[in-house]
Design a protein that fits this description.
About 0% of the residues are buried. A two-stranded antiparallel sheet has the order 1-2. The chain is about 35% helix and about 10% strand. The chain is mainly alpha-helical and about 150 residues long.
Length: about 150
């Protein structure tokens, strides 16, 4: 595929100061029953306490300089047109608000879902099949120089 890439793309993918990804943990204080109880009992804006044993953390990985970050950026750019082809795709809050009806029946329930670890749970083979499906269904959206094979390799 090196012959398909332009010099500026090759430079983008290979010419940078790489570093290992860094992981850190963000506490999810809103999930700790102990913290919630302490806040409810307090009359103060500040609650001082030791870290409770039920305090969960969200792992955050920062890989802005990791070796595959730029390749990931390129692949993301090439895949950008396809999610909008999925009927249920919602880009952001404003997109959702445009899709909602101006009024609903009195007993209508509006439900919100939070999908846990969505991208880390997509099977690689299934992800590749999805890319192949959308590349075949919407070939006009593919980068003509790099094509489907670049995305699937």
């Amino acid at each position: 595929f090196r012959l398909s890439l332009q010099k500026k793309e090759i430079d983008f993918l290979t010419d940078f100061d790489e570093d290992l990804a860094h992981m850190y943990l963000n506490p999810k204080v809103h999930k700790s029953k102990i913290i919630i109880n302490e806040v409810q009992k307090s009359n103060s804006l500040v609650v001082q306490m030791n870290a409770p044993p039920d305090l969960p953390f969200r792992p955050i990985t920062s890989g802005t300089k990791c070796p595959l970050k730029r390749l990931s950026t390129l692949v993301n750019k090439l895949l950008e047109p396809f999610p909008e082809k999925v009927k249920s795709f919602t880009k952001d809050t404003w997109d959702l608000l445009k899709k909602l009806p101006s009024s609903v029946e009195k007993d209508t329930k509006i439900v919100s879902l939070d999908v846990k670890d969505l991208y880390t749970n997509i099977d690689n083979d299934l992800g590749l099949k999805a890319v192949e499906y959308y590349a075949d269904k919407y070939p006009e959206e593919l980068n003509t120089r790099l094509g489907k094979e670049f995305l699937l390799k």
